[in-house]
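Fold it.
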Amino acid sequence: MKKPLIVSLILGTLMVSSGALTKVMTPSIQIAEQEMTSLEDMIPGEFESWKIDASTVIPLVNPDDQGLLKKIYNQTLSRTYINNQGERVMLSIAYGRDQSSDLHVHRPEICYAANGFDISRMTKTFVDTTIGRIPVMHLVARQGARNEPITYWIRVGDSLTRGWFEQKVAALGYGLTGKVPDGLLFRVSTISNEEQDSYRIQQTFLAAMLKAVKSQDRYWLVGRVGA
């Protein structure tokens, strides 16, 4: 076979492969076929020994302006709960139907750092609940005298992720099938210098809250965990 023909065949194959890869890497089918239940309605205001602390208003920590927040997220919820021992837990949830690369849910370690917090002690771990074992990230955000231990996870489609790598791998997995996953950030935190005690309180809160959420709504929070 003549050399020019061989080169032409190779170039043609590369062009076809490149086109196919581009198509695969540009997902266009959203997997969230139905609207999520309102977060306000989904998350009970009172369960077991916990109830909303109406005296405290905690804004969603995020470095983005309101216009970008509305572009990234379809729903957000920010509450503070208190139990009968006077322990407080701050809850923030943010949901977005489109987890394409420029609209993905923002991780707390990025949001807090952008707001001037120092981030330390990031650890991947698990929280045991009655519906299953939840993979979570622990980290501590500090700004001046404020020390804030945080527990979070990010749902990407069916999967729960912790940190940049897991979030990207999950999104890429959907991208290779041409699908765009939805996503949800679930974050709880406590203002305290007692970090291990804070994580214990947060675990107790999470277990009680997930048990109280209606079974048909839990998927929106934890994906296929406990399914």
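The chain has seven helices and eleven strands.
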